[in-house]
Amino acid sequence: MRKEETPPRSEAGRPGASRIPVISLRGITKRFPGITANQSVDLDILPGDVHSLLGENGAGKTTLMNVLMGIYRPDAGTVAIDGQEVRIRSPRDAIAHGLGMVHQHFRLVANLTVAENVALGMQPSVTAFNARAAARLVEDLGRRYGLDVDPAAYVWQLSVGEQQRVEIVKALSRHARALILDEPTSVLTPQESQALFVTLRRMLEAGHSVIFISHKLDEVLEVSDRISVMRHGRMIGTIDTAQTNQHELARMMIGRDLPPVEFERSPDFGRPLLDVEGLSVPGDRGVLAVRNVSFSVRAGECLGFAGVAGNGQEELADALYGLRRPTAGRIRVGGADLTGAPPRRFIDAGVSYVPADRSGVGSVGALSVAQNLILKSFRDRRFGASLFLDARAVADHARALIEEYAIQAGGPEDQIRTLSGGNLQKAILGREMSFSPDVLVVVSPTRGLDVGATSFVRRTLHAHKVRGAAIVLISEDLEELFDLSDRLAVLFRGEVMGTFPARDADVRRLGLMMAGVRQERLPHDAAVDQ
Amino acid sequence: MSLLDLAGPILQAAIRAGTPLLIAAVGEVFAERAGVLNLGVEGMMLVGALAGFLSSFFIPDLTAALIAAMVFGGLAAAIHAYLTVTLRSEQVVSGLAITLLGVGLTSFFGRAVIGQVARGIEIYRVPVLSEIPFLGRVFFQQDALVYVSYLLIPAAWAVLYKTHLGLNIRAVGENPEAADALGVNVAATKYGCVIAGGALAGLAGAYLSLAYTTMWVDQMTAGRGWIALALVVFSGWNPLMVAAGAYLFGGMEALQLRMQAVGTGLSVHFLTMTPYLVTILFLVNASQRRRKSRPPASLGVPYFREERKG
Amino acid sequence: MLLYVVPLLSIALALLVGGAVIAAAGANPLRAYSQMILGALGSLHSVAEVLVKSTPLMLAGLGVMLAFRVGFWNIGAEGQLYMGAFGATLVVLQGWSLPGIGFLPTMVVAAVVAGGCWALIPALLKVRLNTNEILTTLLLNYVAILFVEYFLFGPWKDPLTLNFPMTKLFPHDAQLPRFGDTRLHWGFVLAIMLAAGFYLLERTRWGFAITVTGENPRAAAYAGIDVLRTLVIAVVISGGLAGLAGMVEVAGIQLRLVTGISPPNAPYGYTAIIVAWLARRRPLGVILVSILLGVLYVGGEVLQIETKLPTAIVLVVQAMILLFILGGQVLTRYRVALVREESRSVAA
User: Fold this and answer.
1) B204: Cβ–Cβ under 8 A, 6 or more apart, which residues?
2) Is A103 close to B170, i.e. CB distance below 8 A?
């Protein structure tokens, strides 16, 4: 608790405090309808530092940086660059002041080339676009900082890691002296993360400052010089990395110790409930997103799929629920062949699906919580014996689930889009679990959730595993996969690189497989350096 | 030789019939490339047609009449831009309202001039080029606006693909967040493209009332605005393909009118129907090519910088 | 509260712009408006006339609203209306030996089927071939009108009417009964009943499936709803309702098929889009907006007779109402955000 009472400015005397901050935020307040995302936040970034901004999902880190980048207008507060107070009204102003940001959701134009993305907005618009000059710029910066990308490639052809490099090149091409990276490692393999850290070191040598946004304690301790911790929209404190540890940071971040997560693994499973054989599934651009994937999941077992985003995970999940038609292969649920069947039949066969896109697929924002909770069971006779829906039965059903899953909502009649991310996920989970599913397909179930909601979701999933459900867990969060899965499989470009028991998992081997090395080709000495 | 003699006038007429579609569709390509669907093309064409027609009586210079048509077309588009870009209203409904307003206003004010004949834009034979056998007649014995439309095609293409402005426009229509983050003025880009599109629609309308015919007829666009919108989809949002589609359509219309004039025994009503039916076929064809020619990703979606995602 | 302020203010502003247009044409707007109001609401007869105009607007407006709800931009009510009129007329002219009492129900069915089939084309093109429905529904309007005109100028032309493109008068059994000596007919009652039926629809499972499909088709597919089927059926019914609007016009007002059964200067099928949009999701709204626009129609006709101002003023005012409402929705949206913030801070 000591650090919480220490305002950052009273830390004079520590080395570096004499330097003039590159960026200095004072009293930044930003409100959105219904929520105060930043409450008088102060922050100083010193030149040449890697400064981590640590906090749970929803703590207000990204909002603060969006204010700095001119994307959000603050309701109060000031920004100073090199000690001079400035007004940043738009991203253009922020760029002019030497700021650059790599957003968590990349801001790239998929249908333009890398060079075009970098050149965008650079020149007065009446001038001719010089593709060759833009390509040269990309290559030069790539060489200098170790950011290898093909300037002529279209962005949609690139892997997520390559797209991130384009984003960094974009910022560097605008001479960003301070670069903000928002959760940069969440989309990378462990090895790619190490490569990113190398790039960061080169940037520091070249005199840049870096703001590193993360909610992961270990990597924050690994990369940064100083750490600022945010919680519930407020700045809790700033400390030198050398003077702190995981335990202290966790307490600052969530106000208490991290909840221990240790799920027991049961050694024996029941009969196979989901059998997949040679499955191939087309993606949105017509090419196969899933290629010849086979696996089987038994009652009480959780099979985790690891992989970098965009390697066929969502297409696989959709296919396991009938939302995407496979071009080859078989899907059997409890022995019944459901290949090519519509979602209705998967639902009837006892398959539940918690999709990655909670607001775009998993719920209907304009409808009420109660209506969303009967989204899949509205034909059920308990909600009315005739043509008409029984409004009272629908409301009772909603109230029961709201209570059981501790969903914080104004009431069953509130639009579901007014719920916070964690409560929306609880509602979806509650609906899916109310079927007591035999097979459960879950994609990124805790992405963007705070610690409390995350642990609730994981406990619920585990409980249903123990009950005897077969779970397919697709996630980019390795920790989550280790915690919940009994077996792990790795997807790369739609193919399974290997499957192994979760207790044998090793981050480095996993990382290599996520980068496309097949299990059988892994070096026996797994301790390969990057 | 006799086949060429027959084809010559029809192809010449095809260019004339295709020109208003071409001009209007190129304008709409810009609006849609910037992410704004403007279903007001039909209305803006009518406004331009009447504005051009009326001003040709007051101002002796036909260029000025054409400028008036562009100004009024642009004004109508500015309403759409304000509603959809600044106020972020539903683009489909706003565009429809612009069309209804255009139909209503021109019908109201056009009543007085029905039956009058304007001094039209005259045919100008391009020296030398018009003497080329066959092709000279088809392409270079036309009015000045046709020649302007010839220049419009490569110009629009070059702006879109070879300048920073075009890069900005395409980025704004695909991913306004990305463009905004790099300092591109999203709203100004959208406004500019929508208003330019309206001005071109106005010019296309004036072509109908000052060159294609020299009269004002109530609702004289007869759905050409909608056909232009369909051409944009058919073209895959590419000005060069717009030109190809427009002349194809012009050819069909010329042929159909010729058949009506000659009298083939086919019902006039069914002949008149063909352009609309063929447009539908074009749309179906375009939707089958979706993998190659997708609409701009943010088409129809309003952009608000401070929107919170997730 | 603001929910009503915006539409009322929009109407007032639209009338203001309409007044400016009238003034620009050299007439006195105040006088013109009072003539319109008096002409539309001055007598029982004129009020009946207002309801006569509102009837096709209600029917087609309900249809367009249903399509909007399922997420389909049906801009083709005009064509569906003409096809409905065509279907109804076909029943009369084919001279099938129907018992007298069978005429009207058969005409209703024929109109619904004809309008529905016409809407089925763009619906199938959308779900099977992914073709944008906005343009196809709209282009089919032109086709439908030309199709009907072909029959009116050709096979169906009544030789006794010299060269006017119209069919012969419908027999008495094929005419919708009227109220008293007004032109108000049973189609109006039918429209009100169908609007009431919409309230029931909302409470059914099928209504729920439509709402989910319209609000978020991806979530609907995820929920196991057959999105394509739900959409196609809703759109066909939408077209059927517009077709019904055509039927009541020929069987209740014109008593024969003629060109321009929908006023060319402010076509019912397009006004129906305005009706559906202004009514938002409320069937009662469809009734009220239709009646309001009915006043505008009758007023416009009176104005033309008395002052020679073109009836196109009706369309101008309609379009302006739509534009102002669109702009005014920003206010409503802003207000919603404020209210939400207040309720949160109370809860906190």
Assistant:
1) B19, B20, B21, B22, B23, B24, B27, B45, B48, B224, B228
2) no
pLDDT of chain C along its 348 residues, tens only? 566 788 888 889 999 999 999 999 888 999 999 999 999 999 999 999 999 999 999 999 999 999 999 999 999 999 999 999 999 999 999 876 777 788 999 999 999 999 999 999 999 999 999 999 999 999 999 999 999 999 999 888 887 777 788 898 999 899 999 998 999 999 999 999 999 999 999 899 999 999 999 999 999 999 999 999 999 999 999 999 999 999 999 999 999 999 989 998 889 999 999 999 988 878 999 999 999 999 999 999 999 998 888 999 999 999 999 999 998 887 766 555 444 444 433 332
User: Which residues of chain B have a CB within 8 Å of the CB of A105?
Assistant: 309
Chains that touch C (3 or more CB pairs under 8 A): A, B
Q: How many residues does chain C have?
A: 348
Contact A11, A244 (CB under 8 A): no
C205 touches chain A (CB under 8 A): yes
Sheet containing A302-306, strands listed edge to edge, beginning at the edge strand earlier in sequence: A351-354, A439-443, A470-474, A302-306, A487-492, A495-501
C-alpha to C-alpha distance for B234 and B238, rounded to whole angstroms: 9
Closest CA to C125 of C134, B82, A425: C134
Closest CA to A486 of A466, A475, A500: A500
Contact C347 A378 (CB under 8 A): no
Tell me how far apart the alpha carbons of residues A311 and C199 are, in angstroms, rounded to a whole number: 47
Residue that the structure tokens 């330019």 belong to: B196
Question: What is the spatial distance between Cα C190 and Cα C247, in angstroms, rounded to a whole number?
Answer: 12
Instruction: Dig out the tokens for B237 from the structure.
Output: 């949002």
Question: Could you tell me how far CA A325 lies from the centroid of its own chain?
Answer: 27
pTM of the model as a whole:
0.92
Contact between A212 and A51 (Cβ < 8 Å): yes
Q: Report the C-alpha gap between C83 and C244 in whole angstroms.
A: 9
Distances from the Cα of C25 to the Cαs of C14, C19, C308, C309, in angstroms? 17, 10, 11, 8
Give C299's DSSP letter: H
Distance separating alpha carbons of residues B49 and B38, to the nearest angstrom: 18
Q: Which of C67, C68, C102, C108 is nearest to C84 (CA)?
A: C108
Q: Is A33 on the interface with C (CB under 8 A)?
A: yes
Q: Give the ipTM.
A: 0.92
Q: What are the CA-CA distances from residue C167 to residues B268, C85, C258 (Å)?
A: 19, 12, 7
Query: If you measure CA to CA, which chain A residue comes closest to C212?
Result: A364
CA–CA dist B30, B168 (Å, integer) = 11
Of B100, B223, B288, the CB nearest to C129: B288
Distance CA B29, CA C348 (A): 49
Cβ–Cβ below 8 Å for A127 and B162: no
Rounded Cα distance between A488 and A500, Å, is 6
Token pair belonging to A252: 């600052």
Structure tokens at C75: 């801009």
Largest CA distance in chain C: 79
Secondary structure (3-state) at B306: coil
Size of interface A-B (CB pairs under 8 A): 93
Contacts 24+ apart (CB under 8 A), C23-28: C24/B109, C25/B108, C25/B109, C25/C309, C27/C307, C27/C309
